[in-house]
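This part of the workshop introduces the protein records we will be handling. Getting from the letters to the tokens is the skill we practise here. The record below serves as our worked example for the rest of this section.

…
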Amino acid sequence: MEKVYVRVIVSKGERSVHVRALLSGIIRTGDELLIDDEATGEAYPVKVTSIEVGDKRVDSTAAEDIKTLWARAIDEVTVKIAVSHRQTTESIEMRVPGGNEFVVGEKVKVNNRELKIIRIKIRDGGFKSRRGTAVAAKDIRRIYADSGITVPKKISRGERVVIKKRESVWSLKRKETGS
């Protein structure tokens, strides 16, 4: 098989790197490749996200037919973690090697805090929530975690809840107490 130069756009977090790489054979969306940038000599482990042939996108094609190959760097990735606290959700990002595994039900240490992984949204759109399921960081879109901190319900002073039975319907009424 003959190797040909292919234009590759590698997404690395917030920025994109344009490289020319020598490739051969059939390339498919989802393939993991090692892209060597001929100009700088840098190598990028990537996952192919899209293939452009002419003016359309395809799932697979021969390297010589590719106009542009779109890929995401997977050597080091940003994992987003959503931590819910009753009505608010805190968003945390952490940089980790793409091969790091996160396991549902286990704890992860972030910024000197321990968070318990409740479920993981993967890049293909599905969720993993079965305890013990491991997912590599490069395949994670977001981790949903619990901080383990229980926030007590706030009840303002001078107010108490009174439950009264009226006919066959229960009702909640607030009654001001004289303090």
